[in-house]
């Protein structure tokens, strides 16, 4: 409903109705528009002064039948891999609308919905315009879309395995649910680890469903604004120049921020005030669970096949999507902590023995002499060089084999072609010979 109310493509009748509503609730649009124009050229975040929105609150029981994705370009310019995943959503959900927001139209979308004739949040519009880190904008945009219009959001590299009708089990009433989310990482044994701890318990935000105008989405958006503005202040730079590492992204805008906001909202709505809701409620989740109007699905639903968190595989009955990760290259611009000798602990993929070994090595490192450390680094460099040489050799062997196979195929095709041509020529000659004999016979018959 919201999409129609604030969309330039909405019906004329509905537009007229909402125009009357805007006139009633907002008698001084020129003053607000003036404020908005002044804000456009600034780079700081304005404090939000609550005002009456001119967009009615969403009251429908069902989720909006809309699928959202975001990417650099529009679907007409998708690579084949992105087309394949996009078609999986459209193909399995033919009655749903589908839309992709791109680097070329995302700002227009935010201005339309959060500008003076939308939710009247110039601070949000200005903040989004000021941020330049692509992954921060990607995270923020999905939350803005889910607040404004709701529906289902999925990363561009996420494939639909089952239709959306399967996302809410039949035993639930859709009217009792405001969000559908799934477990992503369930490794609470590492909650106190200095690096893995904040990432050890999280819900998935590469796929989730929302009804519009949920307070949790707005609180998450505002928390991101406050957090990143604080980081910019600490670094003494504008929002556009903030530098963030991997863990800051995860905890500031990504899965950890998403998870913390949802659990806080669950506790806000929790009727049982004596027992706070913690991650314990979702650890080793064997079946979906409805908590404070949030339907939490098992890890297999959105995050199967990870190799950790008992996530199973994509053949599981509960698996609803498959994340291909081909668009998940943002860590290259926001690196993880990498120990000079032992690399990234995330490479362990939550395997207990590997993580413990990494911790032991790192702890022992600080006690080594400089000579011993240099020796370890030299050995590491030697092994890496050997691996690189081996990789290059395998690559050369692969290319050599491909070239040999190509030449072999060309020779085989040439031989077959020559055989076919020779056969055709032989058949033609035989036909001509037979035709000649037939002509001679006919001539003899005519003479006789």
Automatic annotation (TrEMBL):
Gene Ontology biological process terms in this record: protein N-linked glycosylation
Positions of the UniProt region annotated as Disordered: 380-448
Gene3D superfamilies noted in UniProt: 3.90.550.20
GO MF terms, alphabetically ordered: alpha-1,6-mannosyltransferase activity
Xref: InterPro entries: GlycoTrfase_DXD_sugar-bd_CS (IPR007577), Nucleotide-diphossugar_trans (IPR029044), Och1-like (IPR039367)
Record field: transmembrane: none
GO cellular component terms listed in the entry, alphabetical order: mannan polymerase complex
A Pfam family that the UniProt record links to this protein: Gly_transf_sug
Family under the similarity heading: Belongs to the glycosyltransferase 32 family.
Name of the protein in its database record: WGS project CABT00000000 data, contig 2.16
The species this protein was found in: Sordaria macrospora (strain ATCC MYA-333 / DSM 997 / K(L3346) / K-hell)
